[in-house]
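User: Please check C-alpha cell order:
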Amino acid sequence: MSAWGMHAFENDDAQDLVDQILDGTFRLEERRGTFRSEEDGYIDAASGAELIALGAVVRVAQDAASPAAPALHEIAGTDELDLEDFLAQFTDEDLQTLRELIGVTVHDPAASELYELWNEAGEREEWARVSQEEGLPG
C-alpha cells in the first residue's frame, strides 16, 4: 500500500473500493469469497483494508451518524449519500461473514497481514480500536 492510515478510508485499496461504491459499480456478488486466500485463509493487506472500508460503508448506510460518516461524506463531496442499493446487496449472512472477516483482520496475527504490519509499527491496539469503531457493521 502506498497510502495508508489508521482510519477506514485512509489507504489506496480502501479508497478504490469506496470509489466503486459511490459510483455504483461495486457488485458484492463479484467479491464474495475473494477476500481470503483459498489455500490458507490468509487475508492480505489489500483485502483487509477493503474489508474494513466495506464494513465502514455498510455501517454508514445503516446509521448516518456512524463514526466513519464524516470521512465518507468528504470523499463523496456531499452530505447526501444514497446507499440503499449498495446495502440491498447484503444478506444477513453476508453481514455476518463481513463482521467475522473484519474480526480476523483486526485480531488474528496468523491470518492477517494488516495485523502484522500494524503490530510491527507498534500501533496495532490503536488501529484495532479505530477499525472496529469505524468498520464493524451492526
Q: What stands out?
A: Residues 45-62 form the longest helix (18 residues). Residues 117 and 127 are 10 Å apart (CA to CA). The chain has one domain: 12-135. DSSP finds eight helices and no strands in the chain.
